[in-house]
Write a structure and sequence with these properties.
The structure holds two protein chains of two kinds. By secondary structure, chain A is of the alpha/beta class. Chain A has six helices and 13 strands. Chain A has one domain (2-222): Rossmann fold. Chain A is 26% helix and 28% strand. The longest helix of chain A is centred in the N-terminal third of the chain and has 15 residues, at 37-51. By secondary structure, chain B is of the alpha+beta class. In chain B, 57% of the residues lie in helices and 9% in strands. Chain B contains 22 helices and ten strands. In chain B, strands 1, 2, 3, 4, 5, 6, 7 and 8 form an eight-stranded mixed beta sheet that branches. In chain B, strands 9-10 form a two-stranded antiparallel sheet. In chain B, a hairpin with a 2-residue loop joins strand 9 (291-292) and strand 10 (295-296). The longest helix of chain B is centred in the middle third of the chain and has 35 residues, at 253-287. The mean pLDDT of chain B is 95. The chains are: A alpha/beta, B alpha+beta. The A-B interface holds A 14, 16, 29-30, 71-72, 75-76, 79, 185, 188-192, 194-195, 197-198 and B 30-31, 33-35, 37-38, 41-42, 45, 71-74, 76-77, 86, 519-520, 588-591, 593.
Chain lengths: 250, 594
């Protein structure tokens, strides 16, 4: 069996977000790119599954839709342990485009497989690729997966539901949309992995992207929070007046 | 390539180097960046959250961290693959030194193990010794340490009195003596120990295992900083060391010690970059959150001045460190052949770049001192409190001006080594100096021949070199063989040479960056160069005048003062605005991203 891990290339979480072109574009000048944290956990789980020979996972492949600038993060995934990678060369314009291109690639794969996709990407928090991908592929999907174990030819999944969790047994192929908990913490690439990564195959295929369904109209930064107002205990009247007139909550 | 390989250590003082001859950190490739990121991730997830456990010397904890670094392969970066390492270049090793440098006490244990703890065996060990020890050291199964210093032999390392006597059956050396300030002593498994055989006047080196009989340890030293780093005295009482554990040949110990120190110095230069960047980030994070008088303190000129200066000094050090490190790699590449192993070529290169190594040690450690001191100042009361870690960084940094040869020893080394190279005619130091002195009238009228920004800067840096040469000529003539006793003057000269090397390194880096389309735009880098050159010129002028007045060059004082005024000149800079722009980029990024 093969595990595909979808990898989004996102700005480092400490990036100071700026916009250009009259707030129409994300300004990526000087941005450091990283593997989307949820995808990184998915990759960690994929590696754990492969390392246990009882699971019969032959190969872990990472899939990315994006340009040349995504290759350092792909190379990191290979250094962490993925066997090979495919970069679908296209602009990841929206979730629809990304899911469509991933599905076009996956349709050609004939063996049994599991696709792992992070529940969201830390850039636009779209949370849509995994679900759309399963629709395109016409395979089941399980969302909010926090544990995944292979048991013979079935896969046992734990998913978070309101007030508890539920166990799902699935047969391959399917798409698992994973959240935190799927693996403890991301792995740090070891020197040996880094050295091997340069020799691992990174296939680049041309993506025939459909027209994006979503269009970014405008970006806006969150409003800066006004400073906290401290009221002396004896000034209850002032507090009430502020709550009534300024905060308008009373 | 050939051009680069032709650069000799110390030669920069008589030769103008071009931007295409130097390596700059912006040229690190994808793989090197991945290695750096692994170091960052390791420091961030394993070390920084656990600093209290490290500094309280919790039993076994430091060792467990080193073992974890070993699992990631970070202890074998510069160990060849045949000994379970990764055989990386020196410049990559320096990149890891930098990144691991952010790890407070851990970085000292790491540097000790991967540097002076392991490298002597790689460089001077025979095949059996390498086979036996290196794989264990490379994976972290064993930890290494280095025993040179004794109570009566610190800077004067050859004064050590630890003795080695061959046993009657010729099978073992029996060691007797005492070593002190031994890093990693509390948990190291293997020690490179320097001792004198019989009545030798010079040192020999031995590989001593912790389990050998006759070795004992004092309790941990109580130190100002790097409290998590194990530092102990070691006693050898009839310690039995198998004869085959002698490292290198008899009497070659002092040479080994010196060469290893050259390596240690250049690596220290790398190490402090990581510590400095970490402190700068802490400074700017705090300045971007702390409000006084209704404004963020990062908006105040006094704070911007400090932030900018932290950046300038760190950028300067970084420019010089990677330039010198790549020069080491190039020398190795050029000199390795059928008769000279890569390791031999590397050791030779450390010696070749001894002047640069001493410069990097002094400049880097003093740059870090500035950065951590102002970090405390920017954080104010919180900086003085143990809560934020700024005081820890302040205390931890202090050792850098003491170990690997004190900065006093290294300042003397810079000029002393340069003069010896000149005397040996490795390059024409004195000839060039005489030429400048003879042509003083001609040079004094010179102005920058071009309006090009970099040509102008090169003109001034070239003049700084002429200044150094004029002074070398003057003091050599004045004191001749007694110059060695004029340490104050030598220190002044050394400061001038140090600033020349660093100034040129920044100039060449910024010039190279100009063609690389840097995301932040080139202007802020030019600001760094402008301010550094301006400050360096003032500093050199003062140091030069100190030399001339102190040397009492009879009758020539005016001539020299005039030459100093001309050669130390640089372009006037609005340092307030330039520093504000540098600080604004740091404040905007909220992180050191230069």
């Amino acid at each position: 069996m093969k595990i595909f891990v979808c990898l989004a290339n996102v700005p480092d979480t400490t990036t100071k977000v700026k916009f250009s072109d009259n707030n129409q574009q994300f300004d990526d000048t000087g941005v450091q790119w990283v593997i989307n944290p949820w995808d990184e956990l998915a990759l960690t789980r994929a590696m754990e599954l492969k390392e246990d020979s009882g699971n019969n996972v032959d190969e872990v492949t990472v899939l990315t839709v994006g340009g040349l600038n995504t290759e350092p993060t792909i190379r990191k995934a290979l250094a962490i342990g993925a066997d090979n990678a495919v970069r679908i060369d296209a602009e990841p314009a929206d979730s629809y485009v990304v899911a469509y291109l991933l599905s076009e690639y996956l349709k050609s794969y004939e063996g049994g497989y599991i696709v792992l996709a992070g529940i969201e990407a830390s850039d636009y928090n779209g949370s849509a690729v995994g679900g759309m991908l399963s629709e395109f592929l016409d395979v089941p999907s399980v969302s909010a997966v926090s544990a995944l174990n292979i048991e013979g030819d079935k896969v046992s999944l734990l998913r978070e539901i309101d007030g508890g969790s539920e166990q799902v047994i699935a047969g391959v192929p399917f798409v698992a949309i994973v959240q935190k908990g799927i693996a403890k913490e991301p792995r740090i690439p070891a020197m040996r992995g880094i050295m091997m990564a340069r020799k691992k195959p990174l296939e680049v295929i041309k993506g025939e992207a459909p027209e994006a369904l979503a269009e970014m109209a405008d970006f806006e930064l969150p409003q800066v929070k006004p400073p906290c107002k401290m009221i002396e205990p004896e000034n209850a009247r002032e507090l009430i007046s502020l709550l009534q007139n300024e905060a308008k909550v009373l | 390539m050939e051009k680069r390989a032709s650069i000799k250590g110390g030669e920069f003082i008589v030769k103008d180097i071009t931007a295409d001859e130097v390596f700059i950190p912006e040229e690190f490739d994808e793989e090197q960046q991945l290695i750096a990121q692994t170091c960052d991730d390791f420091i961030e997830t394993e070390v920084l959250p656990n600093l209290d456990r490290v500094d309280s010397q919790e039993e076994g904890y430091m060792r467990s961290l080193l073992e974890k670094a070993g699992e990631l392969g970070l202890l074998g970066i510069s160990v060849p693959e045949q000994f379970d390492g990764f055989g990386q270049s020196f410049v990559t090793t320096q990149l890891t030194s930098e990144r691991m440098g952010a790890g407070y006490s851990f970085s000292v244990a790491y540097s000790c193990h991967t540097g002076i703890g392991s490298m002597p065996i790689l460089y001077y060990g025979n095949e059996e010794q390498k086979q036996k020890y290196l794989p264990k050291l490379s994976t972290g199964e064993w930890i290494g340490a280095y025993c040179l210093t004794e109570p009566g032999a610190g800077s004067d390392a050859n004064a050590g009195t630890t003795k080695a006597v061959l046993s009657e059956d010729g099978k073992n050396y029996i060691l007797n003596g005492q070593k002190m300030w031994i890093t990693n002593a509390g948990f190291a498994d293997v020690f490179t120990v320097f001792a004198k055989i019989d009545n030798d006047r010079v040192l020999s080196a031995f590989i001593v295992e912790r389990s050998f009989p006759g070795i004992s340890f004092n309790p941990e030293e109580k130190k100002m900083g790097i409290k998590g780093s194990s530092t102990r005295q070691i006693f050898f009482n009839d310690c039995v060391v198998p004869a085959e554990n002698m490292l290198g040949k008899r009497g070659k110990g002092f040479r080994i010690a010196l060469q290893i120190l050259h390596m240690g110095r250049i690596k220290l230069g790398g190490n402090v970059i990581g510590a400095a960047k970490y402190s700068i980030n802490q400074s700017v994070n705090y300045a971007n959150e702390r409000k006084q008088f209704g404004s963020l303190i990062s908006s105040f000129g006094s704070i911007k001045q400090k932030l900018a200066e932290q950046v300038i000094k760190t950028f300067a050090n970084e420019s010089a460190v990677y330039r010198a490190s790549k020069d080491v790699d190039e020398a190795v590449k050029q000199n390795t052949d059928d008769t000279i192993s890569k390791e031999q070529a590397l050791v030779d290169a450390y010696g070749q770049f001894a002047v640069e190594a001493a410069i990097l040690k002094v400049f880097g450690s003093e740059a870090l001192s500035y950065v951590v001191d102002e970090n405390v100042q920017i954080l104010g009361g919180m900086g003085y409190s143990a809560e934020m870690g700024a005081e820890r960084a302040y205390r931890d940094s202090r050792i850098n001006r003491i170990f690997e040869g004190t900065n006093e020893i290294n300042r003397i080394l810079v000029i002393d080594t340069l003069l010896k190279r000149g005397a040996r005619k490795e390059f024409d130091l004195f000839g060039e100096a005489e030429k400048i002195v003879a042509g003083l009238d001609k040079y004094m009228g010179e102005k920058p021949g071009s309006t090009d920004y970099y040509e102008r800067k090169r003109f001034y840096v070239s003049n700084f070199k002429k200044l150094a040469l004029v002074l070398i000529n003057a003091v050599s003539a004045r004191f001749q063989r007694k110059l060695v006793y004029e340490q104050e003057i030598l220190n002044n000269l050394s400061d001038i040479i140090m600033n020349i090397y660093v100034a040129e390194s920044i100039l060449l880096r910024v010039q190279k960056l100009e063609s690389m389309n840097v995301p932040a735009g080139i202007e802020v880098y030019r600001d760094i160069l402008d301010v550094f050159l301006f400050d360096a010129s003032e500093l050199m002028r003062k140091a030069s005048r100190d030399i001339v007045y102190s040397a009492e060059a009879d009758g020539n004082t005016d001539k020299y003062l005039e030459a100093i005024d001309h050669f130390s000149k640089s372009e006037g800079v609005n340092t307030r605005d330039a520093r504000r722009r540098i600080a604004d980029k740091l404040i905007d990024d909220n992180k050191y991203k230069f």
